[in-house]
Design brief:
Blueprint (H helix, E strand, L loop, with lengths): L1 H22 L3 H21 L1 H26 L6 H18 L5 H10 L6
Helix pairs in contact: 1-2, 3-4
Amino acid sequence: MCNATLNGLALLVMAVSIIVGSVWEHGYTVVGLTAFATLLKGWNDFKKYSFKMDTAKFAYTTYEKTLSELRNYALGGVDELDGFLTKMQALDDVVTNFTPPTYNRYVRDYEKRFRYVPI
């Protein structure tokens, strides 16, 4: 959401800068608008929102595949338990290392919605 908003806002400010530049004779306004648009785009690139989106998609698809393999194991598709568990641990480590950290507010919201009950 932040990636799309900041990119859209930067494009909008740049378009306004072009229109204002062709109508007004004052060059400082155009320079200020262009600098603001460049600042927005730079901030968006600095925060690396697109990379965070890609890693979140990677984590989702990897866990989706993991659930599919777990289902196959439960139905008897895999014979070696040790190899299967090693593969699942490696996938979990890869996803944990590549995904961005989770904010505490998201963890609190998750814990409010899904309460862990030990069996």
